[in-house]
Amino acid sequence: MRVPRGRLLALILPVLAGLALVVGTTQPGLLPGTTQPQTSADAPAQAAGQAVLDAASTSGDAKPVAADKATRTATGKTAAKAPKALYAPTGCNPAKPKPHTVTCNSLFKAGTDLRPLTSNAGPLPDSLGPADIKAAYDLPDGGAGKTVAIIDALGDSHAEADLAVYRAQYGLPPCTTDNGCFRKVDQNGGVNYPADDDGWAQETALDLDAVSAACPACHILLVEGASTSPYDIVVAVDTAVRLGAKFISNSYGIDGEDPEEGTLDSHYTVPGVAMVASTGDHAYGLQDWPAANPNVVAAGGTNLYRDPANPRGWSEQAWSDAGSGCSPYEPKPEYQQELATGCANRAIADVSAIADPASGFAIYDSGKSGGWGQVGGTSLSSPLIASMFALAGDPRPGTNPATYAYFNHGNDLYDVTEGTNGSCATVLCTAGPGWDGPTGLGSPHGVATLAYTPQGTVAGHVRDTAGTPIAGATVTATGNGTGNVYHATTDAQGAYHLAVAADSYQIAVTRFGYENGSGSLSIVDGQAATSDYAVTKIATQAVSGTVTDGSGHGWPLYAKITVDGYPGGAVYTDPFSGHYSVDLPQGAAYQLHVSAVQPGYQPIDKQVTVADSGVRQNFTAAVDPNACTALGYGHAALTRFDGWLGTTPKDGWTVTNADPASTGWTFDNGIELFNFISSGNYALASPITRDGKAEDTTFLSPVLDLTGDDAPVLSFGGVYVPDGNSAFDADLSLDGGATWSSLAHHTTELVQTQVSIPLPQAAGKDSVRVRFHFQGGGNSLAELDDVVVGSCTAGEGGLVAGVVTDANNGRPLDDVTVADSAAAARSAVSSPTPDDAALADGFYELFDTTGAHQYTASLPRYSSPALSTTTGLNSVARLDVKLKAGQLAVGSTALAVSKTMGQIANQTVKLTNTGTAPVHVSLGEHVTGFTGVDPSAAAGWQPLANVPEFTYESALGGYQGKIYSAGGMPMHMLSPSARSYVYDPVTAAWSPIADMPEPVMRGAAAFLNGSLYVVGGAGMPGVLSTTYAYHPQTNTWSRLADLPAKVYGATAATLGGKLYVVGGCASVCGKDPVKTAFVYDPVRNAWSALPDYPEAESDAACAGIHGEIVCAGGYVGGVTNIKSTYVFKPGSAAWTKVADAPYEVSQMAYSGANGRLQLAGGETGTGSVVSQAGETAHTIEYDPVSDKWSSLPDLPQEYYGGGRGACALYQVGSLVPALRTTAMLPGYDQCGDDDAGWLSEGSTELDLAPGATAKVAVTVDSGKVTQPGKYTATIALDTDSPYAVAALPVTLQAAAPKAWGELSGTVTDTASGAPVSDATVQVCTMVHNGVCGEVSYTLKTDAQGHYRLWLDKGYNPLMVTVAANGYQPQFRQVKVMAGTATVYDVALPKI
């Protein structure tokens, strides 16, 4: 059993005297063979346990602030700690916002129940007010006559009244409509205010109160947007500008930005207006727009708290949830060019202010929040900074206020240097000196930094003495008066450009390999100066040599050499000789850094002086003896327990138990108990998790030969918790286990340490063994990990290295496993070498024993040639590999046939294997109805017409180019629906088809033999076991044999003319998923049980591919999905596990196109690499031949819960978010069971030897079509080779027989003349005395009201009936004439 962490602590804390197993502290090591620690530790175990319990009690929905951290101030005193709090988002800050909408960025301080803390009596204790804001940021008085505009969405009818309460509470002068201080308008500047919204009212209260606190004398303009659409919001922004506001706060944003934001950027680009926007409340990597706009001041967030130890009286840290990052869409502005932001584009933030609700700001809102609250978020920092701009004075006309703090060079700012908002380990998420992502340049110290600074520009070129442009030169301007320093780097034309504050400057020009240039100039406000520079190139000398192993082998090493300041990047040695060479300018000393590409070597740093001649510098790299991971080195025994599970040891180790019935040492991966030593698998003897049952168990090594080892050691990580008479021992034997001596013995003391025990007595011995003995019961336990015996020594052998390429085209191949045929463990995987221009990708390197060896090279879809080489002692043998593969060439690019209906055409397709290995070819047909697309050329998802209603989890299938959607759950209903639709790509529209026999949602769906099968699902009431089939030819449904069990959320696939259904839920998905799997035989109309699926799940993806059913993903319960992938070959006894999907996912769209399984969108589960939980837009596919996953173009929108069914990769509707959108991925829109009845091939499976050719007969039978016209299909050519083969398009132009004629017409509305779509046109043939003959046709009009039918004139006379909902039917008897068109237009009068 697994003991919960809290219970484990409760059990062992009484005996954990100073041991903090799980909170990151380290217990002093124990001396070998002793019972005393080397040093003492007296940290109380109770405190350690409480820290763990505190951490465990934090709700996943609550957001604790950044961890407590005491800091040292300049006075040497210990600074106060930043306050902690839980907080909850306001109503306008949803966890999952709708796409293309803005949300506010405000959060309430919350109680332990995660509800906002509020008070009717007055501000909450410790809430900050106007005096605090003024003191913390050293704000001046002023702002009279300045107007700060607040842009918010939706209405707040009590905004002015609430503002009055706030200002009265703090003794601020009234700000009302009557006295002209306050004005509220709608987005157009009028008084047609939007309806109240509680969430946005909270945001409005925050914004108004923040402006009042920072600038009490400022006027306030509140502009209310009609909705959260950015298109309404920018109208409100325009209105604020039109009404004269020079300072505009935008406390909202689109999380993560939006690809269309550039179309709206102009509304925020208003020279002479300070546009300020919050960066967002979702931490690093999810910054907001419009803060990302380079013409907007991006307001980041801090945690502000009182700190008597700081002369300022306050301290600030980066707020853990402040938005920051690199914009994917906005260009890098000129004012950030000199900063090391780590972004190629715009970096966020610019400046910052208080945002953390823990230190938060008092607001008053009489609405839903119920009075006074403590609020934060970057929605607070935005209005504060906008108000500070107002205090600084009007921006200079024509200038961008976002540049002001940058031109001031960070002066008059508090540099926030502590705190993080992510784990990127760069300035983008870690506060530090100067600019950083969470806080920008810092927080305002007064308002001088927000005022315009006189400025100008300097531009020019850097060239050498011959006039050649110098790229990459650094031009540095240092101000003589201000001390400001500006940097620019020249482009490919040698051009540079600097925007600088007005001052006189010293100019320095530097470029590696050139003598420095210099100059001076002065810049006045508004000046655009030009200054060119010439630099002289320095002569270079070659620094060359070799890098070799220095720990025993002496072989050449493949190594990376970097030179400080060298702009040419890293230099690499030749892996076969170890040689390198680099040209460096003479007359200087350089620092060289050498690191072996293969892990396990220690780096080398060496200074090399280059005079007026070449320098020879060799390097020998030493192996890291602690890691001992370098090729050709190892220990006598190294046991990290990777892959060890259960009670069975590996690698010659054994376990013996005094009581055979006891469990003894087991091997765990954190299931039974946590690994308190390191991570991964480990060895465990644990009465504490086995109901206290006593253990007496020994873990024994194999016999080890230390003949060549003169300094062996035993090292291991160990944890021992005693109880009663327990004991833990490590022993050594030099005679294969006959006699033993003690190395370490522990009884009553706790152990948590890394042990290293020298074994001089074992040096040179050939029969060495070690053992670990544990005995104890109750609450005792012992853990072992990373057991090493012996020192790091060189093995006898050499290296084998080379490059793997494709024998057909010479391209390098990565991920190829090259292995010794007689010893598979001696292997390596080829990998890319992207930074080494001299060495192709596909490089591998392995260690082998001396002598002749045979090798194999394996990569799916390739075959290995015979490989052999002789490995020399301490040398490198080169063995390049050319992998063979079949390659199919198709002799035709397309087939086109024109025949009169009833005629047959025979053609041949020439197939040739131009490759170097045999190839297997599978041919299959797919009706397209339109021109097919090469799957390898798919550029992205293409939007289609919206599905007619908001419906999710419908049964979906693609057949003959059309999409069918049946049932599902409409958003406006609380129950399943029977309504069904078809999408026709010819008309680009959806139209209704026959309703399902009963309402069904979340049924398993697939096309089989031309019919759409829907199996099981949720109906009214309850879960179903029904099997329904829709027949497109007749627009009818039929019921077939019921599934043996009731399930919904199951997954369907077709293979070999049969229908497979896998998994699902018995009653409630997430509660009782099932493992059952069934197969349906349409010939017998019967279901049969299959072997159970390995995991109980629902909503997976399955397809029939290459004679197997392939399934991936699925929903287990809660927020847990799986990424497991399994295959089942009909007739086998079990499913087979194959490569996992890249992430956990369920409720995705899926298909089996092109011999692979595709997954699109879906719900991702906890621990996913895509997200912690939510929907995804990723599209991936699995290749069962190579057993690998790869990426396809992402969906336009994250989603899950849309229509689902086997075959054809379409996104139709969505549950989250609610969508009616439809999209398809070209080239993945047909699969399986979609044969063209008029097309057949003489062979569907064939094998071709290298160079062999086969001719496949293709028959086109126009007698199999019922109407003249153009028919299109493709012949898919799937192979087991690594190369994509485009499908072969086939076109049949079927002409009508001479005796046939056309009946066509248009149906319109009598009154308006508008076309009537979807009208029913029934054509009754061979009418006699008013009675129809046996044959009749039912047609539907298209979107233009057209209908058309060809018939043999022998069917005359015809009775045509035209009907539509809401119209009176019309009848007429007509005749068709051979070879001509009979037109019957019908005008329908309304009823």
From TrEMBL:
Keyword hit for RNA-binding: no
Domain named Peptidase S53 is located at 127-456
Which Gene3D superfamilies does its entry note?
Carboxypeptidase-like, regulatory domain, Galactose-binding domain-like, Kelch-type beta propeller, Peptidase S8/S53 domain
Give this protein's Gene Ontology molecular function annotations.
Answer: serine-type endopeptidase activity
**What superkingdom does the record give?**
Bacteria
Q: Which GO terms describe its biological process?
A: proteolysis
Keyword annotations: Kelch repeat, Repeat
Give the start-end ranges of region Disordered.
55-79
Name of the protein this chain belongs to: Carboxypeptidase regulatory-like domain-containing protein
Which species is this record about? Amycolatopsis carbonis
